[in-house]
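Exercise 7b. Backbone tokens:
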């Protein structure tokens, strides 16, 4: 069974940086598209950034130029480098990954989330 575990969240002042990590474990053949979503209080969950196995990326307009998504295929890990953080970035960040398992079945997995709080 595949699991995604996020880490790297925490408290940071506006203008600061955080680096989120999402490590996948289990019977993994390959990891296809991966991404980070966030869910802030009173708001709907939104896509923050995504990256394909080929390295193509997609970002929410609000984070372009500040956030960078990357992946280390050897470690089955995806990262989200967040710079110039703003209070509005406060949310629970969730890792998402489309993973091909040992059964040769592709499934969309979600992590449990990591809290990011940006103070003003």
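Sequence design result:
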């Amino acid at each position: 069974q595949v699991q995604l575990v996020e880490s790297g969240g925490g408290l940071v002042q506006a203008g600061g940086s955080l680096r989120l990590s999402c490590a996948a474990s289990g019977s993994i053949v390959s990891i296809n598209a991966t991404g980070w979503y966030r869910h802030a209080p009173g708001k709907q969950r939104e896509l923050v950034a995504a990256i394909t196995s080929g390295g193509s990326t997609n970002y929410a307009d609000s984070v372009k130029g500040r956030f960078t998504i990357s992946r280390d295929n050897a470690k089955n890990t995806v990262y989200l480098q967040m710079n110039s953080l703003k209070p509005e970035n406060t949310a629970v960040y969730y890792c998402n990954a489309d993973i091909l398992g040992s059964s040769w079945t592709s499934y969309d997995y979600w992590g449990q989330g990591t809290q990011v709080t940006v103070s003003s």
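Instructor comment: DSSP finds no helices and eleven strands in the chain. Residues 13 and 117 are 8 Å apart (CA to CA).
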